[in-house]
Amino acid sequence: MPGDRTPGAGSWTRGPDPPSDPLTHRSDRADETGVIGRILIFEPDPERRAALELDCAARGYEIVCARDLHRALAAHEACTQERERAAGRRPLVAASQAMIGVLEEIERLTAERTSVLMVGEAGVGKEALARALHAQSPRRGAPFAVADVRPHAVKDPAALLLGAGDAIPAEGSAASGQIALAAGGTLFLEGVDALPWALQEELVGLLQEGRIALRGDEKPRSVDVRVVATRCERRESPDDDGSLHPELREGLAPLRVPPLRERREDLPLLIDHALARACAHLGRSALGIGGEALRQLVAHAWPGNLRELEATILTGAVHAAGGVLTARELPDEIAREASADTGHDALALKPARKAFESDWIRRALRVAGGNRTHAARLLEISHRALLYKLKEFGIKP
What residue segments make up the domains of the chain, in order of their start? Predict the structure, then answer.
């Protein structure tokens, strides 16, 4: 059996038709490398895929890069699923340099075991970013457990994290605790600076030694988990983390998530996505966005960040009478703020979309190892469309 030979190397033998199966695809025409007779098998079940590969090989067909393609597609699917779960399918948009830097740092962290401290104002999308980090990491097949330990969310944070022991579990948590549930995967720890000092010290032991005593344990146990903790940044005191244990702070890689007012270039794309979501939620036909409405939305400071933006767009979509969301459907304070800000009149939706699309194509090419055919599949566009976009954006794989 020839094995995983590089496409185009050596001779290729055509044989009888491979087994008739909806999950197999044969290339009968030469591709850009001039190769014919290759076959790719799209079958998620490992045993069935192995049987199909053996059958096709016996009939004279080469199996080319099928496993690599399956791994890339599986990783892409897992990443997409995690992102869609995050905050109601909240998008990860990066047209601004500030947000591009955040996504690049997340991409770097995916290959490391380092735990992370995300710092950002309320509503900036920290959980969505944490899920993206988990979905792109080697831990993607393991649990992503959420523990909101802020005072308004839980009465007994120790029970939530370490388990309820012999007592009845806290509502919404498992008796074993979220740390045990996240074993092998990622623990998203919302509001780590709100934890009691003694509990923060236990987390220090988990980060430094990989061991922690859960409730009911006689001694600490080993737990392999990556912690993605968050701290809310306040506009009046962004650097205030005095309630965070010093050793815990040192054991977490810092990652600041910028507020919307620092990433205005992302706003047209975020508005476009929020409007599409609002229309789908309301069951109404798609809405466009008027030029004056877009100008006012971009000029707004958005102290509530993504949550405020999404709520504003949803309310506007409810009241929009025609096929376009206009400035009349926006709150009065947004119009007043925009009247004093004329610095963003030239910020258009089309260039922001192009910047995001170009960045996403580059990421798909990296995942596919520079293979344009595989990258096109990851992007869910045709190979011809990808070639056109590569030329349009001046991207060289």
Answer: 96-258, 264-339, 349-393
160-182 pLDDT per residue, tens: 999 875 444 443 344 578 999 99
pTM, whole model, 2 decimals?
0.63
User: Measured between alpha carbons, how far is 354 from 341 in angstroms, rounded to an integer?
Assistant: 25
Q: According to the CATH classification, is domain 264-339 in 1.10.8.60?
A: yes
Q: What is the CATH number of domain 349-393?
A: 1.10.10
pLDDT tens-digit series, residues 191-249: 999 999 999 999 999 999 999 988 877 888 899 999 999 999 876 555 666 689 999 99
Distance CA 376, CA 252 (A): 36
CATH, domain range 96-258: 3.40.50.300
Q: CA dist 267 to 98, 99, 262, 295, 298, Å?
A: 13, 11, 10, 10, 6
Residue type present at position 69: L
Report phi then psi at 259, rounded to 5: -75, 165
